[in-house]
Amino acid sequence: MTRPIPPPLVLSRIDVQRIEALLESPAARDIDTRGLEAELERAEVVEPADLPADVVSMNSTARVRDLDSGETREVTLVYPRDADGTPGRVSILAPIGSALLGLRVGETIDWPLPGGRMSHLELLAIHYQPEHAGDLHR
């Protein structure tokens, strides 16, 4: 059985630098970050001002649909320090956070969850992306 090819991934240089530093920090020590590391490895890295407006970056707020349940929700992709339990805040170190990073509007992704289950998500819209809003130094 062949694995599906993941969609192309475009990331901001600043996000990549910050995530790489995070992966080397104590916050990531006891977390399986292999999936996130693989995403960073395969990404095309661009300057923040050159990031397309339809791509999820760090601190972006997006609307996603779970293709299995049909449920839609709004999520904001954040660093672990900002994942404070507020509904909709998703840490980049969570499997779903890693799956959202670099996803483009209209794309879907399958991401493994604990227990061997898979999550099937579609990115419906991005309501806020720091790069597109000119917040390049957030």
UniProtKB/TrEMBL annotation:
Identification of the protein by name: Nucleoside diphosphate kinase regulator
Top-level taxon of origin: Bacteria
GO terms, biological process: DNA-templated transcription elongation; regulation of DNA-templated transcription elongation
InterPro entries, A to Z: GreA/GreB_C_sf, Rnk_N, Tscrpt_elong_fac_GreA/B_C, Tscrpt_elong_fac_GreA/B_fam
Coiled coil start-end: none
Gene: rnk
Any one Pfam family match given in the protein's UniProt record, by short name: Rnk_N
Record has GTP-binding as a keyword: no
